[in-house]
Amino acid sequence: MRNLNRGKKREGASSPRRPGKPSSVTRRTPYLQGQIDGLCGLYAIINAFQCLFPASFTDDDAWELMTILCASIAHKFPAVIWKGAGVEDTVTLFNTAEKYAAKTRHLKGRIVVTRPFARRKIERVQDFWAEIGSWLEAGGSAQTKRLACIGIGHPDNHWTLVTKTSGKSVTFFDSWELKRLALRQFTISQDVAKANGGMHKLDTRQTFLIERFEG
Q1: If exposure means fewest CB atoms within 10 Å of the residue's CB, which of 69, 104, 112, 212 is most exposed?
Q2: Is the dihedral of CA 12, 17, 23, 25 positive or negative?
Q3: Domain locations in the chain?
Q4: Is the pLDDT of residue 177 over 90?
């Protein structure tokens, strides 16, 4: 999905991390995509690793994972740079990411990615967020950690990571530096999103649930 945040100066953007330096548990800074590319899907997966493996996933790992992900959809280049990754492309990317985690021993864990909403019709956006919130909260043990990768349609066309929900808002770990949106800003209706500025079309079937397991 393409980045429509082009031209906007990023406030408080941090300097690049040094290669090989492990992520700190307390340093929660996502990798940022370019202002005029559509690579949010790839960045979402790499940022998921940063969240899920905070003590072992390094900048060198991020570079390696990026090259592996790009190779897995090499037939989609160069158009994917500006068009972004579609749903089937993202399925391929996550399959590749699962294999990468399994073979990269120093990460000390593996990931499992599921799509429980792929064939379900969600009638109310509140029901979707309630289910996502419950699933994320259930992953709070020391042995597991969970994230949701969601597809936001109009007007953003963007893949992003959800780390937490509350009764009023959604918290993100995002390659555009999106931090938080109110639940009332989401709709499952394309028409409502187009008619109301500030509303975001939620493509619930484009949801990927990501879970880390130890070992």
Answers
A1: 112
A2: negative
A3: 40-214
A4: yes
CA-based nearest residue to 175, from 1, 62, 2, 44:
44
Instruction: Dig out the tokens for 39 from the structure.
Output: 């690579």
How much of the chain exceeds pLDDT 90, in percent? 82
Q: Could you report the per-residue pLDDT of 11-58, keeping only the tens digit for each? A: 333 334 444 444 443 346 899 999 999 999 999 999 999 999 999 999
CA 13 to chain CA centroid, nearest Å? 19
SS3 label, residue 111: strand
Inter-CA distances, 114 with 63, 181, 201, Å: 25, 24, 22
Task: Spell 74-96 as b/e; 16+ CB within 10 A means b.
Answer: eebeeebeeebbbbebbebbbeb
pTM of the model: 0.87
C-alpha 32/C-alpha 42 separation (Å) is: 11
Q: What is the DSSP string of 114-181?
A: E-TTTT---S-HHHHHHHHHHHHHTT-SSSEEEEEEEEE-TTT-EEEEEEEE-SSEEEEE-TT---EE
Ranking 3-17, 31-45, 165-179 by mean pLDDT, the lowest is 3-17
pLDDT tens by residue, 83-120: 999 999 999 999 999 999 999 999 999 999 999 999 99
Per the CB < 8 A criterion, the answer to whether 207 and 122 are in contact is: no
The pair of three-digit structure tokens given for residue 139, joined into one six-digit string: 């992953």
